[in-house]
Each structure stands twice: as structure tokens, then as C-alpha cells.
Amino acid sequence: MDNRNITLDAGLEGLYRLVVRDARTDEIRRDTGWFKNLILDSGLNRLGTGTAVGYMQIGTGSTAPNVSDVALATWSASTSDLQTGFPATANSGSPLYISSKTWKYRFNAGSLNGNYTEVGIGWASTGNLFSRALILDGGGSPTTISIGPTEYLDVYYVVRNVPDLTDKTTSVVIGGVTYSCI
Length: 182
What we know:
This protein is mostly beta strands and 182 residues long. It contains one helix and 15 strands; from the N terminus they run ββββαβββββββββββ. It is elongated and about 75 Å long.
């Protein structure tokens, strides 16, 4: 019997959104909107071997993310305060079949005070990142987000599994006869 593996391609895509709120009124002060990140080699290698996310990290580095990164360029703080009360998992259904999972982590009022330029999510309070991004403005350019002592920061992260829906061709041998299949 000839066993063949059929490779099914899928892509992962991640997005961040940072929302700064007034701690007393919950009024939104600043909102970055959604921006893309780089899922790191360390994050991909972590899939299937353990928890890949559990801490949101924020920093002040300005170095562009690289797939070989394992930490923020300049770490400032982290939180494991996972918020609930929103749809965490979704599936787009036909025809794209994109599945996604969303996390929302909170940096409580007083835990941050300053200007921040990078964000990452991973499985430890420092380093061990699944993904990393410079904070981007609506035009896709690196920017700074300011957080005062009377404000709190909610960081949303969504990872989307985007399957390749194109047909794959291969052949199998059954009883000495080769069959083409899609």
C-alpha cells in the first residue's frame, strides 16, 4: 500500500485593537482600530504543544517585528487580566470558512502611565511571544498611544484561520493501479 500525504494549506492572520478608556466614566479616549500583526515563528512552533496565549505585553520599542522575534524590543508591562462577555470564537461559514478567536486583555487604571509603541501576546509575562506588532494608526503607520494614570487599556487580539479553498491534485496507488484524484 502506498500512503500519500495531501497537504492542506491554511493561513493564520492576527489583528490587534487598543482602546483607552477613562477609568471613572468608561468613555473611550483613544481607539487605534484594528491593525495587523506578525505571527512569530515561536508562536507557530508553540501551536499544538501548549498554551500559546495567556499574557498581553506592551512596550516602547520601535524595531519592526521579525518572524524570529521572541520578545518585545523594549518591554514595559504585561497583564493576564482576560476579560469576558463578548463572542470569543466565530466561524464565517460558507464560502470562506474562516474561523477566529478573540481575546480581550485589560491593563487596569494606574498600571500604565506613558507612551507605548509596541504590543505582543504570548504565554508568559515577558518574552515567549505568539505575535508582535508596532502600534499602527488608521493609515498603517507606526504611532504612539498615550495612557494616563486615570485611564485603562483594553487590548483586543483576534487570530483567524483562513483555509486555502483551492483544489489539490494528487495520485494514489491501489492494488498496483495509480489513480488521479482531486
